[in-house]
Model the fold of this input.
Amino acid sequence: MLLELTGIQLSFGGLYALKDFSLSVGEGELVGLIGPNGAGKTTAFNVISGIYPPSTGSVRFRGEDLVGRSTFEIAARGVSRTFQNIRLFERLSVLENVQVASHWRRGYALWDAAFRSRHFDACERRLDEEAKALLATFGLYERRRARATSLPYGEQRRLEMARALASKPSLLLLDEPAAGMNPAEIVELMELIARIRAEYGLTILLIEHHMHVVMGVCQRIAVVDFGVKIAEGSPDEIRNDPRVIEAYLGQPVSGEH
Amino acid sequence: MAAGSLALTGVVLLYTTILFLHGNLGFPVGLLSDYYFQVLMLAGINIIVTIGLNLINGFAGQFSIGQAGFMAIGAYVTAMLATFVIPIGMFSLPTQIVAFIGIVLVAGCAAGLVGYLVGLPSLRLKGDYLAIATLAFGEVVRSVVRASDEISAAIAALGLTTLAAHIEGIGGPRGFGGFPQLADLVIGPVRIPTLFTLIFTSVVLSVVLVRNLVYSSYGRAWLSVRSNELAAEIMGVNSTRAKVLAFILSGFLAGVGGGYFAFVIRFLHPDSFSFLKSIEYLIFLYAGGAASLSGSIVAPGALTILPEFLRVAGFDQWRLVVYPILLISIMLWRPSGLMGDREFRFLENRRGVRDAS
Done:
């Protein structure tokens, strides 16, 4: 298993955000995480990426426990993510946004940068080319000099994914990448996700509300409700699971036909 | 690199013009009196210190009001070393300059080290709380200098009499003056003013080196922390380290500026480094534009020279009216500073390496 969450417990002032939550993701898998609003999906992402330390439980990534590690250390170990509410660096250009994610593997020291050594030039050229290649993959190359926040919404979402990939992750957490997109854009996005998954050998954990998207691309789906994992299985199993239907639609009222 | 050599030509031209106007090149021009020459040196110092502050408050997006504290450390360390430890008055010219440069660098490093020590715990604080902590730091430095006699007595009691004598020598509340001066280099009719040349060179070096840093991965990391700290950390940027680095470099630059300040003013008093001095640098920074190096050159330069210029122009009594009006105008019409976060063309180096496309 690439990622293994076991017995995660996290509460905010008496309210359980995650309760005895466990989830495993194997190398190369694309797993969906679904559930009603406020179920704890994003909280699970925040636990994995080290923003919230869980009160109990462990997060094992490649066998190493990530609990207690700083966010940037977790990033350097190969976990990257996008945000549900876009968090781009607004003062930086599109290209620079992507390059920030390669800061931890820049390969040169302060002196190299201050005195513009040859080593600096070589490293920066490498980072520059990598970032441009990523932007090309995401169809943003032409926009590389624009301010990140001047991009239209859909492009900002794609830029977030490009930036997440620049930190060279093996596990990518996508938090509602299709939010606010129209059906045509969603189809494009799904093709893009499939493509980068193959190209970069990624394992992906995906939060998404668009059911047909999740059902269409995920090999396995976990359903969360009130911080508890209520079901896990293949898309077909999930579609017909009565607990899932109940979580989304409520209980059938007795006496009605 | 046409832009680079053009900028270099400009810098050399500026330097020569100033020396010419000051009458250093053998022609008795006298357009620039010794007093205004000193004002220019202060402007240079203010540029160095403002650039330092810009690293913390502009690029890294924190809020520090302790710049005078770092300057005081640089000033007192420089003056103390040059007076007692390596009395530079004893040396002849080339050695004297080398010794002085060494002393100023040591003073800068001392202030940088203090920047590290202050930065590390303070950076657990954010926003207003960080501002208060750095404000307190500046005042602590001033109080320590004020209490130098008591500290000296305590050190003397430990038996370290030489050190105690040196610390007593900085004078505490009596002020510290009478340190040796740097000799000028005279070649025939040409007189190269040592202190001015050093300050001028330091301004150029600070601008170039800080520009190189700002347009590197380090600068992008600072700006990302400023823009969205959480996202920066998720992308692998150690934000604490980035902020501490800004504090160290800022302390270093303020320390170097303080060292020169001591030798331009020739007299140090703890109250020269009060809270108001720190505020002055905040004004320079925000009037120029946070996260703009060009702004950190234009604003401290203009706001140091202009009030003195008004003095000659016969507006002596109006100086203190014009200055605030100027600041209010900037606030009204250029709320993000004269330069915003833009740069002059010759300072812009956005991609680090030349763009092939």
Observations:
- The two ends of chain A are 46 Å apart (CA to CA).
